[in-house]
Amino acid sequence: MQNFLYIILPALLLGSVSCTSKKPASPQHLQASLLLDAHTTLGEGSVWHPTDHKLWWVDIEKGLLQVYDPETGENVQYEMGKRIGTVVPATDGTAIVALEDGIYSYDFAAKTLTFMARPENHREGIRFNDGKCDPAGRFWAGTMAMDNGGPCRAFLYRFDPDGTVHTMLDSITVSNGICWSGDKKKMYYNDTPTHEIKEYNYDQATGDITFSRVAIRIPGEEGAPDGMTIDAQGNLWVALWGGSAVCCYDPRTGEKLAKVSVPAPNVTSCAFGGKDMKTLYITTASTGMDEETLQKYPQAGGIFSVGTDTKGVDAFFFSK
Known about the structure:
By secondary structure, this protein is mainly β. It contains two helices and 25 strands. The chain has a single domain, classed as TolB, C-terminal domain (Neuraminidase), CATH 2.120.10.30. It has helices at 11-14, 291-296; strands at 28-31, 33-36, 43-49, 54-59, 64-69, 74-79, 84-89, 95-99, 102-107, 112-117, 126-133, 139-145, 154-159, 165-172, 175-180, 186-191, 196-202, 209-217, 224-230, 236-241, 245-250, 255-261, 266-273, 279-285, 303-307. Mean pLDDT is 92; it is low at 1-18.
C-alpha cells in the first residue's frame, strides 16, 4: 500500500488551487493528469530533489528506485535486487534507501549498495515502508507486515548520521506518511489503518518526539492515509489509498481544504516539485486490482501531476 509521456499541462488547463488555512465554503477541487504511464505495481516514496530538479520515486514490489526528469520526460530505473520502501537524498550525492531488510546507501555512478543498518534482523515477514529525513538530517523510516495482516507488529525507526538506530514508535501496523512543520517543532505521522494523522512535539536538537494529539481523522469511505507532504503554509497533502485522491488538510483545525481527484483508486504518495515548487507529483499502485478494475482504471500505477498555487518545501537531505 502503501505502496507505485505526457507533457505537464499548464496550470490553467490542469486547474490550480491555493490551499490556505482560511475556511472555504467547501473544499476546492481539481483534477490530476497522467504524467508517466509507468504501470507500476506499487509506486511510492516520491521526493523532489531540490538541486537536481528531478522526481525520485520507487516501485516497491519490483525493487526499483526511479528518477524522473520532467524536462526531458526520461525515467531512469535502478534495480535494488529486493523490495524498496522509500528513498531520500544524501548530502554526498548518494541515495539512502530503506529496502525490505534494512537501510542502505546507493551510489548512482557505481550502481552499488552499501549496507548501513538492519533494525528488523530478528523478525520474519516484516519490511520497510515509507520514510523521510527530518530537519536535522536524520532518516526516519517505518515498517509493516508483508502480508498486510499483522496489526501492531511494526515500528518507526530513526537512523542518525552517526549510524545509531532508535526505535521511536512501536505497535504500528502500516507505517506511512511523515513530515515536519515549518517551525521544526511538530512532526506529523500516520499509521494507515488507523485513519488518523497524529501530531507529535519534535525536538530538533535531540530528535525526540512526544505525542501531542490526533490532528486529522479521515472517514473510512474517503480512503486511508498513505504518503503525505507539507506545503509552505503548513498544510498537509495526503495520498488516500482507496480514495482516488490527494486531499489537503489544515492540521491546526483538521479541516479539509482541497481535493485532487486521481484516476486510480490506490493513491500512495505525493511531493511538490518543479521549478517553482508548485507542481504536485502523485504516485499510484495497481497491486491487488482485478481485471475488471484494471479496465476501469487503465492508468493505475502511473505518475500523475497537477499545477497548484501552493508552494511546497524542499526535501531534507540525510547528513553524511
